[in-house]
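Contributing new complexes? Match this layout with heme C.
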Amino acid sequence: MFNIRSKPIKYLILFILLSPLVKLMAQEIQLPSQPLEGQKLFLSKGCVKCHSIFGEGGKVGADLGRTQANKNTMDIVAAMWNHSWEMNRAMLRGQDVPQLSPQEMGSILSFLYYLKYFDEPGSPSEGKKVFSEKGCIECHQVGGIGGKSGPALDTLSIYASPVFLAQKMWNHGRRMVRKIKQKGLKVPRFKDNEMADLLAYLQSVSPVKPSLPRYSFPGSPQRGERIIKEKGCLKCHRVNGTGGKIGPNLSEKRFHEGVTKIAGRMWNHAPKMWKKMEELGIQPPRFQGNEMADVIAYLYFLGFKSIPGELAQGEKLFHEKGCIQCHAIDGETDSKKVGPNLARTKGLNDIISISAAMWNHNIKMREEMKKQNIPFPRFSGEDLSNLLRYIRSLREQENGDE
Ligand code: HEC
Ligand code: HEC
Ligand code: HEC
Ligand code: HEC
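Output block (do not edit by hand):
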């Protein structure tokens, strides 16, 4: 069975049990209220009988922690579709093929998309190197060792998440960077898991040993969306088509990576952001409580939320892949074709419901394709995004919906 004590999953559960609802106002894809629901479905729908997540679970199919955690939403849907035959064959040995409602499809996808968020715990020995190589030791004491131009960092050991470290560094950052420059030192930059390593080191040497470390919530993308508006980030950044142009368009950046890396990126760019803020007379925002985690979760889910799609490419695929052979798309009489008219079928309102419908009907479609000598189509995630964009456009024309 699924071992929830495996590392990433353990963290996932810990975070999520503490979690408020994770919801996202989506343009294209609505996030489920909690990714944990996706994990529950992964168990209850039987995916776990054949698939592992980071080594825990069934071995009939791939370890989805390893193969899918890096993927975009539509890549995952495409992988499910492309492998549906192998899955069906494996399932037919005594199991029912799980049917997924649009909501369930969305939950499973957001769960799989979420897997990358949780980093491996930091390494104290690596952290020790970071602490001296990046010069923190020149100004900060921990466990009685280090300089005194900055405050001692012993109390940071109460935190279990490097996001808090990043938040404190951000809040004190301008003064700290000024000091660093005064001393002729280099402003530290972070990559990979370095912030997590640093925190692990602080925890290992600090005399402050909390009985119950303070975990961060996984961050609510929905709250993050509100926070970046309130904190004025949109004065400089565009997100999903709104906002300023002084900083980079955040929707064009990829933040589908570990939470520690995203925190590191915020820090690395901070000195330039502060400089711009000074020029524009904007007070640099400070983060409290879980706010930094919320912002990071929002950045992380930006790529999940909006799926690009090209109409013309989609239309081409609809013909090339044979969909047009069986599905009427406009006024033509449906009776000539074996499949339903995709512009009119009920319930295919968004990209996730269409994905779920394709998954649920894949066996029947495969049979019909076989009869008509149409090869079973395979897709890249990008193909699928384009195709579904096209199907949605048919529906918009037909119903004026959305
Ligand atoms: C009865 C076994 C079985 C069940 C149940 C099952 N799968 Fe699969 N799955 C497979 C097999 C076999 C493959 C093809 C081999 C492979 O690529 O992993 C596959 C492939 C996949 C792939 C593509 C993997 C890759 O790396 O390309 C995804 C994604 C996937 N399954 C998701 C799911 C989800 C989500 C569920 C639950 C709704 C599920 N599977 C249920 C057996 C199963
Ligand atoms: C040149 C000296 C200097 C260096 C080098 C330096 N800091 Fe600081 N740091 C400071 C000062 C000064 C403050 C207090 C700023 C303030 O009062 O707002 C500070 C504040 C902090 C805080 C907030 C502490 C709290 O209790 O809220 C953290 C966390 C921190 N630094 C971490 C680091 C880390 C990690 C490094 C190395 C990557 C580092 N600092 C390198 C001088 C330095
Ligand atoms: C005054 C303008 C300004 C404001 C306000 C601002 N930023 Fe920035 N931001 C920038 C600029 C300019 C850069 C590029 C800096 C660089 O190139 O190093 C940047 C870079 C970033 C990056 C790095 C992107 C990457 O390539 O990895 C992130 C993330 C980011 N900002 C998030 C935020 C968030 C979150 C807020 C609100 C709390 C915010 N910014 C507020 C100007 C701003
Ligand atoms: C050989 C005929 C055939 C081809 C080719 C075909 N389909 Fe289908 N499709 C069907 C049939 C038949 C159904 C209804 C299946 C059922 O009732 O279970 C269906 C159902 C669907 C549904 C679900 C509709 C609903 O009622 O919810 C979607 C979405 C869909 N197809 C999309 C596609 C797309 C996209 C393509 C091209 C990649 C395609 N189909 C190619 C025959 C086909």
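Reviewers usually confirm one structural detail per submission. For this one: Residues 321-323, 325-327, 338-340, 342, 345, 348, 354, 357-358, 361, 364-365, 368-369, 372, 374, 377, 387 surround heme C (ligand 4) (CB under 6 Å).
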